[in-house]
């Protein structure tokens, strides 16, 4: 994938989803052959030339400055996660490839173990699972039985047969995971392993390819998941994702039972 072409496609998709009526445009300008705002209207709202918008949307190698990126974000009414995505595509937040987390920081690995009996795991920006405790292995999957190349939460959800029907609301879980992964890809465009992973998913999984093409962007720091556990039945959990200040590329994910029935199911699972 190319960040310049993705920036062009993202700007077009955000422009086309806007409703001209929300901007109070004159009625004589409402006869439109394409959805959304026109390029000249976005240019006027952002305070840039029409030619600049055209060249951006044609992927002609422009890199918006911080001020222009902010103006475009306001003109297109981007949500906070979409704004961050635009800034990352504009390469205003470069990362050093040598600093990308591929192994768990030892203090964080110990913290994951100490969080028992709460299920917890440590991941990096590409959803690689770097450390886990026994509770989350019993809840999700025994990661020790898998080769390291398969220690990736998105890969398991999409490619591992035992996980295909694990989530009750599978499409929502996959959609949110893809939206998070897209944000990570823009933040780490130099991460070839992440690019290769997305290419693998796009090539081999129709569901991923369809949802990836929608260009949804959202960082999911907390939420709810409902799982069908083969031993104890349905379990609903709340998850919280924390980013350590010392190791911001690593993400600590903690699960908690969402209701009394789910807590009882977890207690039965731990007792096994």
UniProtKB/TrEMBL annotation:
Residues 29-83 form the HTH cro/C1-type domain. InterPro entries: Cro/C1-type_HTH, Lambda_DNA-bd_dom_sf, MLTR_LBD. SMART domains: HTH_XRE. Pfam families: HTH_31, MLTR_LBD. CDD domains: HTH_XRE (cd00093). GO terms for molecular function: DNA binding. This is Helix-turn-helix domain-containing protein. It comes from Nonomuraea cypriaca.
